[in-house]
Amino acid sequence: MRKWLGRLRNAIRPGRLDYNLERELRFHLTERIEELQDAGMNAEAAARLARKQFGNYTAQVERTRDMDMAEGLDAMLRNLRLSLRALAKSPAFSITVVLTLALGIGANSAVFSAINSVLLRPLPFPNSDRIVSIAQVQAKTPQPHIAPARLKDWNRLNHTFQAISGYYTQDDSELSGELPEKLTHALVAPRFLEVWGIAPQLGRDFSPQEEHYGGPNALLISDRYWRRRFGASPDVVGKTLRLGQLSYPIIGVMPASVAFVQRNVDLWSVSAPDFPYARSRDLTWFLGVGRLKGGVTLAQARADLATVQADLAREFPKPDAQIRTAIEPLKEQTVGGVRESLWVVFGSVTLLLLIACTNIAALLLSRAASRQHEIAVRFSLGASRASVAAQLLTEVLLLALAGAGVGLGLAAAAASVFRVLARELPRVDEIGLDWRIVLYSLICAVAATLACGLVPAIVGTRRSLAGSLASSGRSQVSGRRPAQFVLVAAQVAMAVTLLAGAGLLLRSFQALGRVAGGFDPDHVLTFRISSSWGETGNLKAAGQAVRRILETVAAVPGVESSAATFLLPGVPGTFPVELSLAEGRADSEPKIVAESRIGSAGLFATIHIPLLAGEMCPQESNSPGMMVNRSFANAYFAGAGVIGKHLGQPSSPYFPTAVVRGIVGDARERGLDHEPVPTIYYCGLIMQPGLYFLARTHGTPMALGESVRRKLHEIEPARSVYDISPLTAHLSDAFAENRLRTVLLTFFALTAISLACVGLYGTLSYLVNVRQREIGLRLAVGAMRAQIVRQFLGQGMRVSLLGCVAGLVLAGVFTKVLAGMLFGVSPWDAITMTGVIALVIAVSIAASLLPAVRAARVEPMQVLRDE
Amino acid sequence: MGAKKNDILQGTLVLLILKTLAGQKRLHGYAITAHIHSASDQLLRVEEGSLYPALHRMEQAGWVRAEWGITEKNRDARFYSLTPLGRRQLAEEEETWERLTSGVGKVLRYA
């Protein structure tokens, strides 16, 4: 290393080198002249003689300097030339290694590119590490939404935020075109753009007048909508869009980078905080976002906002005393959920790369042994061990670089595959190649070079091997190749680890498929209908709208029944509430906490949740009612006693007290991988954003999609119907990340076991080749062919069994990491482990059998004649 | 330049320099030539044109260390000293030399 630095210095700063050299040589000359003078020569003659003896002075300088610089470069070029020649001589070997590495490095770089874009890169905003999400925390409900008045107070009273703002979204129909088009509309609090630190790419931000109730309407549109609808025309500013009853002038276009917090937002407009309805501290709707001041830590901001809220609690004890605040970095909130999965996949793919390297190392070892003769010749010609090893490593480096190059191509292709396979992954649109991925691949290549090449370079250049030149002209290799077999065992061990992981994930998936959800998702069509929060101002009309839609849908031929709900059954989502019993309840009894769902009366008939006791909610009723599931009834009321009781949150506008009408069966509402929990179902819905509509159909659900849409357009021409899909698709989407992880891991594991097999096969074949003479001799003196087969098979099996044992230990560690992602299997599932071992043994028998049989087929006479 | 009788056999220069430095703490280039010259009873003379490239090559191989210093005559000179690596190299080269000379000697006697 020091040597290299010196050389680099020489190459970069020849001036200094020349000066030093000249100084050194001038000194030499002076000394020589002095010596000659001491011997009695006059000064002039001495100088002349010394110079003559010294030779051409500048040539001297140059020669010495060239020595310094050129030697390193020379050696490198020579190594490169030699390596290229050696590799060209064995193209099959070279191609195998390059492809193996390309697969290993490519897969690794691809996963790293996902990690880089999703986890490592900051969000695409200026100083994005200062952007946080802010929520209000209330003991009784999990919803994080904030009352506009409170958001305003927080922004006014805090000392650590540059700005606090908020937003909520609804799906609107834009009516200025021929057909209503559904657009996702974000309604934002003032200061929204300031929090993100961005300005519209075209037009302007909202003006102060527009941020007040009664001020002019104004709309910012997304880059995507601008391109789709207006062909990216620059004179879009000033055009108007029609949303419901209102028309909005467009004042600007947002930059393309604004894909947060919700990536599909098309429109932004202001939700004025001084809107009379917004003054209530009980009605909450904003999701909070804030930008910290520079130099403020998360802890300081949390403490600051907690103090602010404590002051508010004194001022408005009624709701605010119950309310706490929560702050999280926005990035964490966006990508935190997939971190574990991504690292698991990355770990697996790294293991795969390690296997590929080990495989190549074993290949190289065999090759080094057969090149013993060549290496011995080079030693005898005076090459140092370091230079031979350097040349061997250069060969591997060339292969690794080629592999990394091909691998990068694979990674680039994988980025688009990711975008298709993992649509739900946050920030998936940002995945792509950048300089970091290229750098990472290069590092992979160098690491792979060292991992594959170091052992063979050290083993291959042992002096004792070099001595073999003297001992025999024919290459004679000892039958013991411990290093190679250790490498094969290591591959088997890593393959077992990956197989165990993949097996457990597969078994989880299987278990998930077998789960009875407590409802029947087949033959159910789901769709959504645009609506705005403004409609909720007229409760009666909004309730009628839902009923009219449900009746219309139920009347479509082929539809059995229809329903509406907020959260689809079996799609992960949780909304626990704490309820109080109007009839009174002793303090000693546990609090009533239940998962809550709001649905229309027809929900149970539509998704086939059975009625166990009592009656269903009537379609129309003057007093609010609810259904509870069996778990709820058993947990809090000892069964049927719950019917007729009144439950609710007396102070909350969202959970009015309602009478319990009946008990229904348990359903896995929170996701198929979650056991049913005590759940209540509020009956009765009003039209509002976020609703899902369901229709049970006789035949294939999607076949009715178009007729449902057309029928609804007749009665509700101002609404758009969208997101039409079968309920089963939602259920399977809910496990998309799960499935992606499983598919990837299975793919890696299968690649791993194939590589390990190839390694075992290659090593044994090589062994058989070099021991042909011995086998021939043994056969000639009467050994049975079966014995030979048994011997080689035994050797292969010993290695792979050793690998299995080591692999099980490794798997123990790996599956512990996986434990949180498993469903219905333990990390030490005996069936999985047995299956993995059986698979590994079966394939290692296959891989060992071929070379073993070939060994037994050796013709003794043939071999002996060859001698 | 024509061959001279006191030209040093190719490849032995390094050995000579290593050996010279092994006996001393540190020497500059001129002192090395002087030492080889006198120790060989004026039989060997090191060409400056070979000495300095050799010294720099040896420095890069890590066998010698070089540093600037002042001679007793108060002149700036570059001093070379042996590193542990150089010491090992010396032992190796001495052995090679022994083998070579004894081999060559035997051949010569045999002929």
Short description:
The complex is a heterodimer of chains A (867) and B (111). Chain A is of the alpha+beta class.
Q: Would you mind describing this structure in some detail?
A:
The complex is a heterodimer of chains A (867) and B (111). Chain A is of the alpha+beta class. In chain A, 54% of the residues lie in helices and 15% in strands. Chain A is globular. By secondary structure, chain B is of the alpha+beta class. Chain B has one domain (12-110): Arc Repressor Mutant, subunit A (Orthogonal Bundle), CATH 1.10.10. Chain B has four helices and three strands, in the order αβααββα. In chain B, strand 2 and strand 3 form a beta hairpin. In chain B, 29% of the residues are buried. The termini of chain B are far apart. Chain A binds chain B through residues 2-3, 6-7, 20-21, 23-25, 27-28, 30-32, 35, 53-55, 59-60, 63-64, 67-68, 71-72, and chain B through 1, 28-30, 34, 47-49, 52-53, 56-57, 60-62, 75-78.
Mean pLDDT of chain A: 82
The best one-word shape of chain B is: globular
Uncertain segments of chain B are 1-6
Oligomer: heterodimer
Low-pLDDT segments of chain A = 465-477
